[in-house]
């Protein structure tokens, strides 16, 4: 399965990234809108970016009681998005309610379960309660998400292989924590290069600063896509 690139929009407004997005039209297909932009601009930012011709991954990491999350999925389903995240630690019932809402209101929407954040180390995870390693916790939550009906997961690239070993083959794996060899790790602790993640079995890789901070963002994006294509 080919691996594709998702560009992270780390900004509070589409206007801040519009010049770069115009450079990337026709090169990058997917962009990720996260909490920073969504809380600053609301749903209109999603519509504006989709209007530029990009597929939108809305990364809100929903986590609440089952009914509230289901209603949130229903609301998000009215937007031009292709992916939406929720926290798998919300439990089986919450994920089942969310998937039922997806089926009813946006059958083609890919609900992605967030397992363990890529910024979280083993020590940080232990402070929150789980005594297992990040890998074991990711696999536990990944299995639970798949059993609950979710067709995709967000995980660090280091957990791709363990998840592929236990999940149905059709489950999409979206992996942040991707850095080209010459890029800084920034706040990510469990990272791989684009090619390494693709070879491990990622469906999508998520990249932000290595593209936006590059002297030529379009060239940086093309280099990553070429690395992915070389893996096949």
Brief sketch in words of this structure:
This protein has 232 residues and is α/β, with parallel strands linked by helices. The protein has helices at 14-24, 35-41, 43-51, 66-76, 92-105, 122-127, 134-147, 160-166, 194-200, 209-212, 217-231; strands at 4-9, 30-33, 55-62, 83-87, 110-114, 152-154, 172-175, 204-207. Helix 9 links the parallel strand 7 (172-175) and strand 8 (204-207).
Break the fold down into its secondary structure elements and pairings.
Elements: E1 4-9, H1 14-24, E2 30-33, H2 35-41, H3 43-51, E3 55-62, H4 66-76, E4 83-87, H5 92-105, E5 110-114, H6 122-127, H7 134-147, E6 152-154, H8 160-166, E7 172-175, H9 194-200, E8 204-207, H10 209-212, H11 217-231
Parallel strand pairs: 1-2, 1-8, 2-3, 3-4, 4-5, 5-6, 6-7, 7-8
Form type: globular
DSSP strand count: 8
Provide the low-confidence segments as ranges. Answer: none
- Spatial strand sequence of the major β-sheet: 1-2-3-4-5-6-7-8
CATH T-level fold name:
TIM Barrel
| Tally of helical segments | 11
Spatial separation of the terminal alpha carbons = 7 Å
Structural class: alpha/beta
Mean of residue pLDDT values: 90
**Number of discrete domains:** 1
Taken as a percent bin, the fraction of beta residues is 15-25%
Secondary-structure element order, N to C: EHEHHEHEHEHHEHEHEHH
The level of helicity is 40-55%
Q: Main beta sheet, described?
A: 8 strands, parallel, barrel
| The first-level CATH class name | Alpha Beta
In the CATH hierarchy, what is the superfamily?
Answer: Aldolase class I
């Amino acid at each position: 399965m080919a691996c594709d690139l998702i560009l992270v929009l780390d900004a509070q407004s589409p206007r801040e990234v519009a010049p770069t997005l115009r450079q990337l039209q026709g090169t990058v297909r997917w962009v990720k809108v996260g909490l920073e932009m969504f809380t600053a601009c609301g749903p209109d930012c999603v519509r504006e970016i989709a209007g530029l011709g990009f597929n939108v991954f809305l990364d809100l990491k929903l986590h609440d009681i089952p009914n509230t999350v289901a209603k949130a999925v229903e609301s998000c389903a009215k937007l031009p998005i292709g992916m939406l995240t929720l926290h798998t630690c919300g439990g089986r019932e919450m994920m089942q309610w969310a998937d039922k809402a997806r089926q009813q209101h946006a059958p083609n929407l890919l609900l992605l379960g967030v397992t363990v954040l890529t910024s979280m180390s083993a020590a940080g995870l232990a402070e929150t309660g789980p005594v297992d390693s990040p890998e074991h916790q990711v696999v536990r939550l990944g299995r639970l998400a798949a059993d609950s009906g979710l067709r995709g997961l967000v995980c660090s690239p280091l957990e791709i292989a363990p998840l592929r070993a236990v999940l149905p083959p059709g489950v999409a794996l979206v992996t942040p924590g991707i850095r080209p060899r010459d890029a800084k790790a920034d706040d990510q602790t469990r990272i791989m290069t684009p090619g390494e993640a693709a070879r491990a079995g990622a469906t999508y890789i998520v990249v932000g600063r290595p593209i936006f901070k590059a002297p030529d963002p379009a060239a940086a994006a093309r280099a990553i896509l070429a690395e992915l294509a070389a893996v096949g």
